[in-house]
Amino acid sequence: MGSSFDVATVRKAFPAVKAEHQVYFDNAGGTQVLGTVSSAIKNYLEETNVQLGASYNVAKQSTETFARGMAAAAGFIGAATDDVERADLERHDAVIGPSTTQLFANLSLILSLPPSSEIVLSQIDHETNISPWLRLARLQGHTTKWWKPDNEDMMLTPQNLRPLLSSKTRLVACTHASNILGGIHDIKGIADAVHEVQGAMLCVDGVALVPHRPVDVKELGVDFYSFSWYKVYGPHIAILYASPSAKATLGTLAHYFNSGDSLSTKLGLASASYELVAALPSVLEYFGEDRRTMWAAIAAHEERLQRMLLQYLRGREDVTIYGSKEADKATRVPVVSFTVQGRSSRDVVEEVEKRSNFGCRCGHFYSKRLVDEILGLVERDGVVRVSMVHYNTEGEIGAFVKVLEEVLEGK
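and the corresponding structure tokens:
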């Protein structure tokens, strides 16, 4: 994909989207895969499917392919070194694993905090970035504090974090963007606030943000950052970044005879599927050489999509929108969640599905503390969530609104 943006051209890059048998509005749960990603996986398995590190020719090719995949993965979030072609995992502050959930769970096993530390957890987060730290606090005897937004749009800010920080704070965990509310949080500002406490670290779940915006972990100043590639048009694996200073504090899960300071050595556990890593350069190539322009075009297109849907939902007195009601690309990704007065969310979704080929979902989407404890939707089957990405079209949104109108009006 080049730097210019045309949705018709975009859709041709995704075989499932091009088939047009389903309209995908469940993208926050996983996007469709680029055709070039599928081809790269197939090519690796058919041509270079051997163990890494051996000296025979095919093994050399496989090792080089894997190294290019690792370099691409790290480079995608600004975690690669200048020598991005070097086939040396020690050169990158990142590790590949099966999922963000698994990587954070593994990370919690080798993170040791000083006695009686305090851990601050966001109450609006996906459980992926909560349960590992609750377990760590329980096992190591630390105190946890809950970070709950105090504003109408339910945004995490440096201002509503600071009252929770103390000299004992050693870890703060939050999401870059909520997978239900859609709000984009000021991670750089939050990181600055966290680092005002000596020894405190910030762990960020980037899963809901990365399909929509570019990320540079070093510019953000985070200590840990993770997201899953299957949410970003790629294969079902994930990446975790650790800053050099944070990595130095970690223990290791490696075998006793495997020494080294790389994150792959400490956390990898041979979980980086070779054929899936080999496909990651295809994701970067899709965004073109001028990635900044491509991302800007994506943000503008997605802003138009969510504006259409939000405008319709705002006009109905029986609908409650959660998160910001404005389609501002600076503060929101196109993840729109709502409930309908007098209707269960499951009923709304099932009625839409009966009448159309639109695929959206209802539930808590693993942000159960947000849905149950803050939104109070235990008895409502959670929210209806419509999550869009840049291969969706304004025509699809218009048609969805029409079907939703029929459902809500009982036609």
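(Above: one complete record from the training split.) The first strand starts at residue 23 and ends at 24.
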